[in-house]
Amino acid sequence: MQFGKSNAKVYVESTTGITFNDVAGEDEAKELLTEIVDFLHNPGKYQEIGAVCPKGALLVGPPGTGKTLLAKAVAGEANVPFFSISGSEFVEMFVGMGASKVRDLFKQANEKAPCIVFIDEIDTIGKKRDSQGYSGNDEREQTLNQLLTEMDGFDASKGVVILAATNRPDSLDPALLRPGRFDRRIPVELPDLKGREEILRVHARKVKLSDDVDFNAIARAASGASGAELANMVNEAALRAVRDNRKFVTQADLEESIEVVIAGYQKKNKVLSTKEKLIVSYHEIGHALVAALQTNSAPVTKITIIPRTSGALGYTMQVDEEERNLMSKEEIENKIATLTGGRCAEELIFDSVTTGASNDIEQATKLARAMITRFGMSDRFGMVALETQVNPYLGGDSSLSCSPDTASTIDDMVVATVKEAYDRAMKLLSDNKGKLHELAKYLYEKETITGEEFMYILNKKEYLEEKS
Q: Is 196 in contact with 170 (CB distance < 8 Å)?
C-alpha cells in the first residue's frame, strides 16, 4: 500500500557529487545559498545573535539557467540528506493523496533533519487559488493548503530547509511567497558575458581543447544563451571533432556549434537553383551592407548562404563588441533598417520580392511595436505603457491593454516606423549599388564569408582585381 507515500528521491551524504565549483555564472545566487549552507554547518553563530535560518528559498529564472543544479550543489556543499521531488509527483488520481504525500515528505524530512527538501517545478501545485476550482474539494488546492500548513508548522531551528524552483513565479499563490514560508526569492537569470565565459570553461574541463580556443569570442557570439545551451554548444563542438576524426576541439568547432544551436545543422542535400542562390546572396549582403553603413550597429562577423535545418536559406551574423544591457531609440531603428535590408536588396536588383524575408518581417514588426507600446519611444503616446508582458521567463507573451481606437493607431504607427526604416535602407543600398553587386558576387562564389573579408571588400575597391 504505497498510497500517500511521497516518492521523493533521497540522496544521503550527497551522492550527487555536485558542489558550487560545478556552478558558474550565477555568483549572486551562489552567495545567497552559501549562507544557508553555512547555517546548516554552524547553526551556533547564528543562534547566538538571534538570527533564524531562512525556512525556504525559491529559485526563479528562465529554463536552462541551472536552478536544479544550484539546489544539488547546495546539498553537495552542506553534506546533508537531500530530498528531491517534482511538483507533478504530488498530483494523484485520488483526491487527498497529494496532501497525504506532502505530510509524508515533511515527516521524513523532520526525522532526517538537518536536511534539504527540493521541490522542482513548484508551480504545478502552488498555483493561485481562485473561485473556479471545485469548492474546497479540489485536489490541487488541498495539496497546496497542506504544503502551506507544513511549511508554517515545522521548526526552522532543526535545520530543514525547503528549496523550490519555478519559471512561472507570477502564477504562484501569494500565501506561498510570504516571509516565513519562502523567505528568499533568488533570481537565477541568463548569464552575462563574464558568466557565459565561466560556464563555457566549466563545461570544457572534460573536453580536450586545442590551444587556439578563445572562450571570450565564443561567449560574445552566444549572447542570450542559457547555461544549458552553452553546455550543449560545448558538446556539439566535441561531437563535430569526433565526426572529423580529430583528437581535440578547435575554435572553428565551437563557432559552428553556436550556429547549430541558433540556426540548426547545415543541410547537405538541399541544393538551391542558380537563381535562388543569387537571390539569397543579394538578400544576405543587403542585411550586412545596411548594418555596416549605419553607425550604432553591431559589426558583421559572418555571412553564409548555406541552408540550415531551421528553414533559413542563409543568414548574417552580427556580434556586439561588448555586452549590451540597454538599447537606444537610434539603435532599435537601425536594427529595423538592417532587418529590412534583405527585402530592399531583392526589390532593388530583381524588381520583385520573395518569401525569404518572413522572419525579418516578424522581427522588425515586433521591435517597432515594442518601441511604441512598451519602451515609450513614440511622440504620440510618450511614456505610457500600452502592453504588459505575461510569463517573462517563458517566451514573454504580451497582451495589449488599450482601447480598440488606440490599438488601431498603434498599428498605423508600426507600419509607418517600418516603412521609414525600409526607405532608409533602400536609399543606403541604392547609393552603394556597385558594392552590393561586388559583395553578392563574391558571396555567391564563396558561399560563406567572414566579417573581415566583407569589410575588406567594402573598404577597398581593387580587392577583386588583385585576387584575379
A: no
Which residues, in sequence order, are CB contacts of 419 under 8 Å at separation 6+?
Answer: none
Angle, CA of 50, 51 and 53, to the nearest 5°: 140
Band of the pLDDT at 315, cuts 50, 70, 90? confident
**Residue 133 pLDDT > 70, yes or no?**
no
Backbone angles phi, psi at 300, to 5 degrees: -75, 130
| H-type alpha helices, 154-249 | 174-177, 193-203, 215-221, 227-243
Residue 343 has pLDDT above 60, yes or no: yes
Whether pLDDT at 4 is above 70 = no
- The answer to whether the CB of 372 falls within 8 A of the CB of 410 is yes
Both ends of the chain: CA-CA distance in Å?
83
Residue 284 annotated to the active site: yes
The grid cell for 122 is: 513548484
Write down all domains in the chain, each with its CATH number in brackets: 9-187 (3.40.50.300), 193-263 (1.10.8.60), 274-467 (1.20.58.760)
Catalytic residue among 284, 323, 346, 452: 284
